[in-house]
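Q: Can I see a sequence and its folded structure?
A: Here is a first one.
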Amino acid sequence: MSPPSRRLQTKPVITCLKTFLISYSLIFWFTGVILLAVGVWGKVSLESYVSLASDTSTNAPYVLIGTGAIIVIFGLFGCFATCRGSPWMLKLYAMFLILVFLAELVAGISGFVFRHEIKAELKDAYWKAEKNYNTTDSRSQAVDSIQRTLKCCGVHNYTSWAETEYFKQNGIPPSCCMPLADCSPENLRDLRLAGTVVYKQGCFSLVTTMLEANLGIIAGISFGIAFFQLIGVFLACCLSRYITNNQYEMV
C-alpha cells in the first residue's frame, strides 16, 4: 500500500482531470448539436446545388446529421464515464474520439485533394441537366431553383439555352426572368428579345462560388472539431491512467 500522502496528492489531480473532461465532453456534445444543425441547414439550403451531381438526392446532409447524432450520444457517454470514474469506459471514449478524428481528417483531405475533379463533374452534370431540361424532373427543378435564387441564366449565360431541345420548343425557361420583366412566350423564344428580360449572368460560376464558400465553412468547422477531439483523447487517457494507478496504490 502506498503512503497516504501520495494518495492525497493523486486525488486532486483526478478531480481536476474529471472537471476538465466533463467540461470538454459538454463542449463535444455541443459540437454534435452544431453538426446536426449544419446537416439540416445543408439539406434545406444546398440540396438544389448538390443534387445536380447525382440522379437522386445527395446523402451528404444525412451523413452530417448522423455524425452529429452519434457525437451527441458519445458526448453524454463521456460525461457518464467521467462521473463513474471507470477506466475501461474512459478508454472506450478515447477510442471513439480517435476514430471520429481519423474519419473527419480523411474526409476533409479527400475533399480538398479532389476539389477540382468535383468541380469538373459538377459542370458536366449541370450541362446535362440543362440539355435534358423538361421542367418536371428533380434536376430540372434544381436548375430552376438555382436560376431564381442566384439570379442567373444558363451554364455560361442565357445564350447557352439555345442549344437545348427545350428552347427550340418553348424558349428560355421562365425561371430566368428578371422581376417585373415582360417574359412573354414570344420574348423567351427570341434570343435577341430575351436578352432584355432575362438574367445575363451564367449560373455555373455562381454555383461554384456559392458551393466553395459554404463548403469552406463546413470544412473549417469539421477540421476544428477533428483537432479538438485530440484534447479529449489526451484527457481521457490521463484520467484513466491516474484512476488505475490510484486503485493499485490503495491495494
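Q: Show me another, different protein.
A: A second, unrelated one:
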Amino acid sequence: MAIPHSTKVVQVSKVAPFTADSAAVTDFSLPLTFFDTFWFKFPPVERLFFYSLPQTNTSFFNSILPKLKHSLSLTLQHFLPLAGKLTWPSESSLPIILFTAGDAISLTVVDSDANFHHLSGSHVRKSCDFSPLVPSLVVSETGASLMAVQITLFNGGFCIGITAHHAVLDGKSSTMFMKAWAHISKQNQSSLPPELTPCYDRTMIKDPEAIASMYANQWLAMTGCKSNQDPKVFEFLSISGEPPADMVRASFEMTRSDIEKLKKRVLNHPNRASEELHLSSFAIAYSYVFVCIVKAKIHEQIDKEVYYGFVADKRSRLNPPVPENYFGNCVAAHYNFVEGRECIEEDGFYKIVARVSELIKEIKEIDVYEGLEDKLSLFSKLEPGTLGVGVAGSPRFGVYSADFGWGKPEKVEITSVDKTGSISMAEMRDESGGIEVGVPLKKHEMELFTSIFSSGLEKP
C-alpha cells in the first residue's frame, strides 16, 4: 500500500504590484470582449512548472523564495489586471476586470515530501498526486480572483503552480506573463522587452453585433442565474465533473522524425484525394493522438459521434491585426463531429487527418466573426458524456523557455485538462521540432492508449 505524501503550508501571503509611491496607485479597469465572455464560466486553467534545484531548504527560503516574490511584484507592475478581480456591476451588461489600490495576488508556499523526480517525469502518474500543487481562485458572490500562485518545495526541486481565470487571458497571454516573470527574475531588472509587455487596448476588438453581451446573457440563462447579481454568477461550470479516482496522466513525445513518418504515411495513402491537405506538425500530432484516445476509450460508444476540435488564435486574423502581445483572450473554439466507428477503421488516422485538415483550412478561410453568435449555444447543446478531444496549450508557446535563473523547467503540466477531457500540447523540452502531448485517462484506458500509441509509431 502506497504511503500518502504529506504537504505543509509554510506561508500564505499577498503579493501586490510593486510601486515606489503607493499614493500614485490608481484604479484600473478593463471591459471583457466577446473573446473573453465566451470563457466566462469555463473552469480555470491550471499549470505547473517544475524546476530542478539541488539546494538546501535554507538556501531556498533565504535566497530563492524572496527573489521569486520580489520579481513577481515587479512583474505585476506590467500585469495590473491579474492582481485585481472579475466583477459585474449591476448597471453593466458585461462583467469587467477591476484593479483597485491594495489588490494583490495570493501566493502560497508549501513544503512537500513527495518525490520531485516522480512528479516531474513523463511516465504514468496518478492525477490526484498533483492536486496539492495547484492553488485555487477565490470565488464569491461579488467576484472572482483572476490568478493564484503556489510555490511547492521538494527535495531536489520546486514547482510553481499557476491558476488563471480563463475569462481574463488565453494561453498565449498566460505564457507571456510567465515568461515576463522569469525574465525579470533572471535579469534582475524591472523592465520588459516589447514582446513581453502586455497591450491592453480593447478598442482593437470590434463588436458591432454586441456578441459579448449575447454571450453574457446566454451564460446567465444556461446556469440558471436570474440576473448578473445572482449569488452563483461567478461559479465555474463543471464540464465533466471531478476526475475519477483512477485518473492518471502521462506525457508522450512525438519527435520530428515521428511526425515526418506519419506525414509520409498520409501522403502515400492509396485513397489520398487530389486536393492538398494541411499537414502541419500540429495537425499530424493531434490527429494521431485523437485516434489513439478514441480507440482506447470508445467501448460501447462506437456508433456515437465523437467531437474533435481546438482553439485558433485570431490576433493575426483581425482587421487590422492585433499585436502578438495583446493581453486577454483572442482565440475562438472550432470543432466538428465524426462517427466513432470511422476512427477505429484501418485507415482511421488518414480519415481524421483529412477532417482536421479541412477544419484548419476552414478556420483560415472564414471571416473571424462568422458563426460567433452560435458558438456558445452549440457548446451548451453537447450531451453530457460526449466523447471528444480538445487541446490546451500549444507547441508554439515555448513554455520550456521560462527560465527564472536556475535553468529551464524540467517539466510543464496543464493539470486542468483532467477536468475538461482535453489533452495538453507543448514543444518538446530537449528537441527542436518535436511535440510533447499530455494525456489524462483512466488507468485501464491509459494502458491501452500507451500500447496503441507506441505500436502505431513503430509501423513503417
